[in-house]
Amino acid sequence: MRFDIITLFPDFFNSPLSSGLLGKALAKQIAIANLVNPRDFATDKHRRVDDEPYGGGVGMLMKPEPIFAAVESLPICPRREVILMTPQGQTLKQPLLKELATNYEQLVVICGHYEGVDERVLNLVTREVSLGDFVLTCGEIPALALINGVVRLLPGTVGKEESLKAESFETDLLDYPQYTRPAEFRGWKVPEVLLSGNHAAIDRWRREQQIQRTRDRRPDLLS
Which pLDDT belongs to residue 167? Predict the structure, then answer.
């Protein structure tokens, strides 16, 4: 999987892309991350990437020319998606991450800034994605969330791929409670069933806990 990240702040990604499972996946070339700064494609002497909106209004907009030039400088893989991170996009959920991880070999991710991007940039874009109904200062944060969510689904990233199948949102149920040693901590005990060695009973308990937790916390998933 190839990620081409169009960002005004490439340094933002240095630590996250070199840490944890994400860093290991990139080191093993399960995925490749290429950082592209649209400022490098600005043609004026000040290398401007933003300007005032026509018709007035507060704030600045990212100009179309540097973004187009940055994207057009990239190689084009056969199965490519060009994604704009924007609060107006479809909400990032697990099925979308699975779709991207399964169906594409190149994701071009455009990180917005200021008040957004010139509307004509959407002629480049094949999908708009949002983290949710809120606004952040930059598109790098949601872009990193998307990249992390996709990479962890790629074969070889997670050591035990079976663990991916029992997670929250994989079956429209939240994950069950989990415990590790010690068996008792500050008076809180691990449920006896988990210490019983009875795997059938443990499976039943976990399923019941998933349903109850989903009913309590996310009843919309059950509907």
Answer: 60
Residue 223 has a pLDDT of 76
Instruction: Tell me, rounded to whole angstroms, the distance of Cα 43 from its chain centroid.
Output: 32
Domain extent at residue 216:
167-222
Instruction: Count the domains in the chain.
Output: 2
Is 59 among the domain residues?
A: yes
The pTM (predicted TM-score) of the whole model is 0.89
In the chain, % helix, strand, coil (3-state, to 5) comes to 40, 20, 40
Are 102 and 36 in the same domain?
yes
CA distance 140 to 51: 20
Q: Which CATH number goes with the domain that contains 123?
A: 3.40.1280.10
Cβ 40 vs Cβ 144: under 8 Å: no
pLDDT-derived band at 168, boundaries 50, 70, 90: low
In a domain, 156, yes or no: no
